[in-house]
Amino acid sequence: MEVLISNTIICCKRWQETLEFYQNILGFEISYQRPGWFVEFRVNPKAHLSLADAAHCTIEAAEGKGITLSFFVADLVASREHFLAQGVEATEIRSQSWRAPWFYVWDPEGNRIEFWSNKAGAGRERDTAQAETG
Prior knowledge:
It is globular and about 40 Å long. A 4-stranded mixed sheet has the order 1-4-3-2, covered by helices on one side. The relative contact order is 0.17. It folds into 2 domains: 1-57, Roll (2,3-Dihydroxybiphenyl 1,2-Dioxygenase, domain 1); 62-134, 2,3-Dihydroxybiphenyl 1,2-Dioxygenase, domain 1, CATH 3.10.180. It is of the alpha/beta class. The longest helix is centred in the N-terminal third of the chain and has 11 residues, at 15-25. The chain has helices at 15-25, 76-85, 124-133, and strands at residues 6-12, 29-34, 38-44, 47-53, 68-72, 94-96, 99-106, 112-116.
């Protein structure tokens, strides 16, 4: 099986607030929507993230339990500073010998979002090239 495009759908009890977070704080572009209850964001050409109002979902909203979204970014320091400037709480950048540096933020629904890079602020060109080629 070859997966051509990925879409993660999150059912949200705090739909409007969560929609505004992904659109205005993360800057994700809307690629499709059903006004008032469903929005699909284009994360990149092959990955999408959708939000659905829990009142319209056929499954229960997870309310952040057991979900971590993970995004590779070119500049970890600048990404964290962006969140702090927007008033979004972000953890310190952490690193362990067995993994790349990362930090977390949480969306209004309580979902943990991890941002990571091969280096905290250096090697951006190489990191981006690796992410684009897989």
